[in-house]
Structure formats: structure tokens, C-alpha cells
Amino acid sequence: MTASIPMKHPDAAARVYDDEAFIVLPHKGQYKILNSVGTRVWALIDGSRSADDIAHVIADEYDTTFEKALSDVETFLGDLESNGMLAGKNVTPGENGANRNV
Amino acid sequence: MTVTVGSIAALGQGRHDFVPDMAFHRSILPSSSISSALAISVGGIRVHLTGLSSGQASALRERFGIFCGNADQAATCTVAVTAVANDAFLVTRGTPAELYRIAIAAEDGAMLAASHEWSCWFNQQTGRGGLALASITASDPKAFDRAVENFLRVLYAHTLLDVDGFLLHAAGLVRDGRAYLFFGPSGSGKTTVTTMSPDALVLSDDLTLVKVASEDGQLICRSSSVPFRGVFAPRPERETFYPVAGFFRLVQDASDFLVPLSGARAVGEIVASLPFVTERHDLAGRAIDVVSKAVAGTPVFHLHFKKDRTFWDAIGGLA
Question: Could you give the number of structural domains in chain A?
């Protein structure tokens, strides 16, 4: 997970209200609400940051260790993936950020 | 669900769901022997239905009352109605048989939809569309009424977003000049609160129209009846909009009380009760934005209620 780049599902429609995100998944007919930390992680999923990158930001902003942040981020990304909120195929960054899977 | 988008080869087999694609709709030739047109106007969206027989037009005028008019003013959208040879588009499933089902798809910017007795396309950019009626609608007036009404439900659910409006699965009840919108999925209690409110004007016990407008710097919600308003609502004599006192997500409980909702939870509860539009990823964001405007100036609650009319006491403070 740490070497992959999580990407939001392209069909997901999301808006943020007072640190909580509301997300519609039309392809699954489902609606999700993320808490404040989850909303921050969701915002950091931009198609270029890896789980490591996201965990560094979370560790800085929420005053926790990188190891703890990475564990939580990976668990959360797994939840997003199992709920169909991430694109089906994660990409792996190559040297200079190139996508090896293209 | 087995849905085929586009295969004309599946036409008429009646064994699979068939949601026709644009090629199918383009292949339909208009009938030359029928020529009546009818305008239907809801919430400022004016739909012209062309290609109707005079009998069909009369039946729709009778059914939709004040929402009907002559097609002599500019239309928001024009829909060509045609009869096709298919005996069905979606198969009826389950035992006991399902009551109704609608499948939604999209192609090249157009919405595609189909149900048991009809299929349609509509392009919101061009304001053009088509409604194909299965053969049963020619011999069964109830099937014709049902087909047109359910097509209009889909069409208006989509087009009202363009004018900061939406259809909500809600019972709309008016007391003292203000609309109280009780919403939730089937079985949540919309009919119950309607029948328990004999002193209220019933806008709808099924789908209610909500429109949002900015007035003097404030976002104001108003609600009105629609042509497809359920069982208990009387035929309106005019299209009247009432200011919305609040949105109430129904929660059956042992006592009556309100829980205020805000932010993502308020928006989420309402969006989850919008018909059809959140099934399309290209419209879901727009739907969220319109609902966000609605809740910016109007309160949203969980209404915990028991099955008697005392729930109005819990709401009383808002009146």
C-alpha cells in the first residue's frame, strides 16, 4: 500500500461541510460521511501522493508519530477501497514519478 | 440486475432488461397519424409532449389538471412521444412481482431511462427528448398513464436541478401557510404522518417539489405540489409555493422529539431521499449543491415519532 498512489473513484461526488465530507457513490447507490481526519485524508488523495506522503502530512498536522499515522492511513485507505470509494486500480510510481502501469 | 444498454438485438425478447441506446431511439419514426401536443409545467420547467393522439392528450389533461396547458409557449424541453412494437423494456421480477423499477443510464450527454412499459432519452443541453411507449400502452389506459407519469418523474427530477429545485421523496403538509416536509424511504412513515394530519393541506404524500431562491441575501426554500403527488393529496387548483418551515427525516420511535442536523449530515439525509439523480455521477455533484443551498436557510431534523398525531407537538416550537 505504501508504494501505491491512491486515487479517488472518478464517479464519486464529494463536498465538505465543517470538516466532514459527504460523498455520493452513484455506481453503488451509496452515501458516506467522513469524520474530520478522514476528510483531511480524502482531501490529500490527489493522484500524486502515496500513503507515505499522506501519513507524513497527518503526522505533522495531528501531532502523532509517522508510524502511527501510516498505520491509520493504510487502514483508512483500505476502508475506502472496500467501500468502492477509490479507483479500482492503484498505480505505482516509477522513477521521477512516472507511472509504471501505463 | 441484468441491464443491456444498446443491443437492438434484444428488442422484444422480453427475457432481459433492455435500456435502449441512442441508436435505438434515433431509429424510431414518428407516427404520422397522430399530432396532438400538450404542455406540462412544473416548477417553471415547461415540457411539451408531441405526437400524442387526441385521446391521449385528453387523458393527460384530465390526470394532471392545472399543470397542463396548450403547447403555444416556449418549452424548456420538447419530447416526441411514439409507440413502438416492444411489449416491454424491463422485465418484471420477483415473487410477488415487483411493483415498479426504473433503470437510468447516460450516453453522449443524454439521459437514458427505461421501465417496464416505456423508455426515453433526454438531452438537457438541447432541450430535446423522446419517449417510446411499449405496445401495451395502446390498449391499456392505466399503463399509458403510468408510463407517462413515471417518465415525467424522471424528467423533472433531472431538469429541476437546472432551476435550483429538486423533487424529494416527502410528504408535504401545509399548516398556517408553511410547508413541513417529512421525508425518508418507503416505510418510514410518510403516509402515516399524512393521515394523522387531517387539519393540514396535503401537497403530496409521495414526491414534493422544493425550490431555492435568494431573496434579500437569504436563501429561501419553497415547496409546492406536483402532478404526481401520491394518493392522499387533493388536486391543486393552482400551483402555489409555500415557504418551507423545515425538513424532517422520519424515524419511528417510542416518543416524539427532534434532533437537529447540520452540515454533511443534513445534506446527506436529504440527498439520500432524492429520486434518480444521484444515480448519475455527472449530476450527483449538482444535486448536492442544490440541496446545500436548501439547508443553508432552512432547518433539518431527525423527527423521532410514534404513530399518532402528537408528533406535531414536538414540532410546535417551529410554528
Answer: 1
Enter the pTM of the model: 0.87
Q: Which residues in A lie closer than 8 A to residue B284 (C-beta atoms)? A: 11, 13, 24, 26
Determine the structural domain holding residue A18 and report its residue range: 8-86
CATH label of the domain that carries residue A16: 1.10.10.1150
Q: Which of A45, A52, A48, A77 is nearest to A67 (CA)?
A: A52
Which amino acid appears at position A74 of this protein?
E
- Is residue A91 domain-resident? no
| A23 part of a folded domain | yes
Question: Which residues, other chains included, contact B50 with Cβ-Cβ below 8 Å and sequence gap of 6+?
Answer: B35, B37, B71, B78, B79, B80, B81
Verify whether the Cβ–Cβ distance A15 to B289 is below 8 Å.
yes
Residues of B in contact with A17 (CB under 8 A): 262-264, 267, 292
Residue A15 to chain B, least CA–CA distance (Å): 8
ipTM: 0.82
Distance from CA of B311 to the nearest CA of A (A): 28
- pLDDT tens string, chain B, 319 residues long: the values are 333 333 222 333 446 888 899 999 999 877 656 578 899 999 999 999 999 988 999 999 999 999 998 778 889 999 999 999 988 899 888 777 777 889 988 888 899 999 999 999 999 999 999 999 999 888 889 899 999 999 999 999 999 999 999 999 999 999 999 999 999 988 999 999 999 999 999 999 889 999 999 999 999 999 999 988 777 778 888 889 999 999 999 999 999 999 999 999 999 999 999 998 888 888 899 999 999 999 999 999 999 999 888 999 999 866 5
Q: How far apart are CA B233 and CA B143, in angstroms?
A: 21
What is the total residue count of chain B?
Answer: 319
